[in-house]
């Protein structure tokens, strides 16, 4: 597994450059296999990246009928709630793609919907784990995403796996329910590290001085996931850290 760190001048350039990188990566991947499975993230840089894709003329070079969208985590809220990562991704990217992206290619984590049997984040996690099984190789349990994107919090969380919280240590399943999230809202659903580690490529995007400590911790050798979950956000084939100068400052300072 290779790890690469790429530094950008600021958050806006980071989002635009990550969008360009992701678009060309999708095109390259599609020259080898289809469909391609992409895992999306919430957060300001993650959504800004999706919006940059949604504005980019290069988006027309991707055969979106061969791209499936999944999520690394979700806020457990009713469908359409503006705080849901899915809602923000629909506004930023899925809407602008229009009919080019088939509705069946979009796989959101289930929303709060007691009438549909999704009354708890545990219900949503179980339903998503069942859907993800369809991505597993024959007979295997674990799904394989081609590219799985994460933002990172100032505490070093990725997805909804927070330092000192039980989700970091969950194994044997691909999804977990999250309660008492330090980042609102309190109820969430997240992929586990079992699912994260089977992704071929993991991309972590981070911008801003408030992330510098967590980036330095995550990139330092031997950092445990319990203190900095982002340190263990690694792909089976490649891990890419896409940061701005402010977020890498403590690493650069040595
Ligand atoms: O549901 C969420 O909130 C995100 O998935 C979360 O993991 C986010 O990516 C980080 O908290 C970074 O968010 P910012 O880029 O806004 O700091």
From TrEMBL:
<dbReference type="GO" id="GO:0006098">
    <property type="term" value="P:pentose-phosphate shunt"/>
</dbReference>
<dbReference type="InterPro" id="IPR037171">
    <property type="entry name" value="NagB/RpiA_transferase-like"/>
</dbReference>
<feature type="domain" description="Glucosamine/galactosamine-6-phosphate isomerase">
    <location>
        <begin position="9"/>
        <end position="241"/>
    </location>
</feature>
<comment type="pathway">
    <text>Carbohydrate degradation; pentose phosphate pathway; D-ribulose 5-phosphate from D-glucose 6-phosphate (oxidative stage): step 2/3.</text>
</comment>
<dbReference type="InterPro" id="IPR005900">
    <property type="entry name" value="6-phosphogluconolactonase_DevB"/>
</dbReference>
<dbReference type="Pfam" id="PF01182">
    <property type="entry name" value="Glucosamine_iso"/>
</dbReference>
<protein>
    <recommendedName>
        <fullName>6-phosphogluconolactonase</fullName>
        <ecNumber>3.1.1.31</ecNumber>
    </recommendedName>
</protein>
<dbReference type="GO" id="GO:0005975">
    <property type="term" value="P:carbohydrate metabolic process"/>
</dbReference>
<keyword id="KW-0378">Hydrolase</keyword>
<comment type="function">
    <text>Hydrolysis of 6-phosphogluconolactone to 6-phosphogluconate.</text>
</comment>
<comment type="similarity">
    <text>Belongs to the glucosamine/galactosamine-6-phosphate isomerase family. 6-phosphogluconolactonase subfamily.</text>
</comment>
<dbReference type="InterPro" id="IPR039104">
    <property type="entry name" value="6PGL"/>
</dbReference>
<dbReference type="InterPro" id="IPR006148">
    <property type="entry name" value="Glc/Gal-6P_isomerase"/>
</dbReference>
<dbReference type="GO" id="GO:0017057">
    <property type="term" value="F:6-phosphogluconolactonase activity"/>
</dbReference>
């Amino acid at each position: 597994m290779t790890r690469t760190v790429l530094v950008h001048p600021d958050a806006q350039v980071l989002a635009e450059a990550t969008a360009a990188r992701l678009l060309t990566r999708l095109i390259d991947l599609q020259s080898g296999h289809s469909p391609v499975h992409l895992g999306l993230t919430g957060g300001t840089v993650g959504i800004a990246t999706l919006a940059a894709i949604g504005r980019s003329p290069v988006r027309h070079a991707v055969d979106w009928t061969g791209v499936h969208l999944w999520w690394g985590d979700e806020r457990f809220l009713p469908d359409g709630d503006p705080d849901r990562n899915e809602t923000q991704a629909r506004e930023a990217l899925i809407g602008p793609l229009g009919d080019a992206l088939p509705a069946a290619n979009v796989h959101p984590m289930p929303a709060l919907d007691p009438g549909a049997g999704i009354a708890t984040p545990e219900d949503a996690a179980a339903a998503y784990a069942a859907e993800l099984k369809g991505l597993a190789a024959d007979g295997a349990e674990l799904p394989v995403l081609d590219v799985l994107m994460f933002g990172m919090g100032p505490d070093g969380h990725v997805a909804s796996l927070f330092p000192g919280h039980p989700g970091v240590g969950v194994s044997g399943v691909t999804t977990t329910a999250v309660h008492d999230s330090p980042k609102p809202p309190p109820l969430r659903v997240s992929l586990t590290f079992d699912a994260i580690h089977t992704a071929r490529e993991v991309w972590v995007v981070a911008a801003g001085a408030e992330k510098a400590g967590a980036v330095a911790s995550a990139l330092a050798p031997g950092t445990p996931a319990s203190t900095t979950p982002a340190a263990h956000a690694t792909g089976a084939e490649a891990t890419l850290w896409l940061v701005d100068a402010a977020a890498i400052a403590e690493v650069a300072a040595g």
